[in-house]
Every structure is written in structure tokens, then in C-alpha cells.
Amino acid sequence: MFILIVDDDKLICENIKSKLTRLGYADRYKFVTAYNATDAEILYDRHLPTIMVTDIHMPSVNGLALIKRLSNRSHKAYIFVLSSYDDYEFVRQAFLLGVTDYMLKPIDIEELDSKLKKINVAAPPSQETLAETPSDYGAERMMRRALDYIEENMSRSISMRDVADYVGLSYNYFSKLFKEHTSCHFAHYVHLRRIEHSKKYLRAPGFKIQDIAKKLGYDNPSEFSRAFKKYAGCYPSEYRDRLSSSMEEM
């Protein structure tokens, strides 16, 4: 079995090989290196690697273009991309192309070992299972992005597919991951967040209920009132009246 390492920096390739050797992977794999995407394609077709580790940023043809080209091959490898902290958009695109996971530079030897141990090398990954197993850190980062995206788009109709596409995960896997991280279903979570936001607006007398409904992505005030009743236990007008009574009693 082969591990293909792709980076235009030879020192990084040698560093990854050294770490893999220290972890004992040299006993099970042969390492091949490429310093550009063109050579990587040739070596990929020649050796049919079980695992490929590739940088995103490379001159001429970058890592994303390489992954896209390889996605048409019948042979499927587990692909890990190397990125920097500010490369989220590139990483998102890589997940959409079917990578297994990503690692931040400089690579931590324990993280490398942990990620490789998670994959099942008894059989090559199928197209359906690619990109479905990000690391705990990767999943946590994606969920932060997802929740931020929800907060930023409260004023419009937003679906789980919208958010899944935004973070670069399949609909089914994102649904499972979202439930694990929030302990509730997507629609329930969005309603809860909207109700929490609406309470802030209801405390301000200048906001009309129909304006609050529109501000939070509800099609009409009636839909907003029903949702508020369901999740807050009373209608928005009742909630505002209670606030007013409390203020008068103070």
C-alpha cells in the first residue's frame, strides 16, 4: 500500500515522511512524494495510493484542482488536505470535492496519527462515504461556522440544506452532526434562536410585532405568534404585556 505526499515544499514532504516513519507507518506503507500537481497525478495513477496528503496552495495547479481531477478516477483514496488557519473557504471547497479530512500546518504528529487511525484501510473509500468523517476538531469548527451562519441569516428563510452546503457536508451527515452538537433538530434550534432574538425586540416598545416577525424571517405575524406561543408558552403580545406590568410594579 502507498501513501502519496504532495507539497511544492520538499522539506514539508520530508517532514511528513519522517513523522509517518516515527509513527510506524513505514512498516505498512511505501511513501511516494510529488512536488507539483502534475507529478502527483502520474504517481496517483501509477501507485493507486490508499492515502494522499496534499497541500492546498501550490503554484500552477493548486491542491483543489488536483483533487477535482482525481475525483473522476475509478480509484478512490483517502485524501487529507493541508491548510492554514485562514484557509476555511478552501477547506470547505475541498470537503465539497470529497476529501476525508484536513490538517493545519505545521502538522502535529499526534493529530496525524489520530486521523489516520480513524480510517478503515481494509477497503478504499466509496464516493458515498468520502468527506463524512471529519475529526473532532474539524467537526467542532464546522459547527461553529454553521451556527454563526444561522445567526447571520435570521432575517431570511434558511434550510438545513443551505447550511450543510455552506460548511461543505452532505445533508444526512450534517443533520447527524448538528443533532449531536446542539441536542435538537435543525428546525427546532432555528425557532429557539429566533424566539430568543424576538424577546430582545419585544422589550423595545418601538418595534411592532409584524416588524419583528419580518426581521426574523417569518412569512407573516401569525406564523411568528404561533411559533412564539409554542416555544415561549405565550403569545408575543402577552409577553410584552407581562414585561410592561413588571416594569410598572418596580
If you had to describe this structure to a student in words, what would you say it looks like?
- A 5-stranded parallel beta sheet has the order 2-1-3-4-5, sandwiched between helices.
- It is an alpha/beta fold and 250 residues long.
- Residues 126-132 have low confidence and may be disordered.
- It has helices at residues 10-22, 37-47, 63-70, 88-96, 109-118, 136-152, 160-167, 171-182, 186-202, 209-215, 221-232, 236-249; strands at 2-6, 30-34, 51-55, 78-83, 101-104.
- It is built from 12 helices and 5 strands.
- It has 3 domains: 2-133, Rossmann fold (3-Layer(aba) Sandwich), CATH 3.40.50; 138-183; 188-249, Arc Repressor Mutant, subunit A.
- The longest helix has 17 residues, at 136-152.
In short:
This protein is α/β, with parallel strands linked by helices and 250 residues long.
Write the layout of secondary structure elements.
Blueprint: E1 2-6, H1 10-22, E2 30-34, H2 37-47, E3 51-55, H3 63-70, E4 78-83, H4 88-96, E5 101-104, H5 109-118, H6 136-152, H7 160-167, H8 171-182, H9 186-202, H10 209-215, H11 221-232, H12 236-249
Parallel strand pairs: 1-2, 1-3, 3-4, 4-5
Under CATH, the homologous superfamily of the largest domain reads Response regulator
CATH architectural category of the largest domain: 3-Layer(aba) Sandwich
The percentage helix is: 55-70%
Q: CATH first level of the largest domain: which class?
A: Alpha Beta
For the largest beta sheet, what order do the strands appear in spatially? 2-1-3-4-5
How many structural domains can be distinguished in the coordinates? 3
| Number of contiguous helices | 12
Computed CA radius of gyration, to the nearest angstrom: 24 Å
Shape: elongated
H/E order of the elements?
A: EHEHEHEHEHHHHHHHH
Mean pLDDT: 84
Largest sheet: 5 strands, parallel
Classify the secondary structure makeup into a structural class: alpha/beta
- Stated plainly, the CATH topology of the largest domain is called Rossmann fold
The proportion of strand residues reads 5-15%
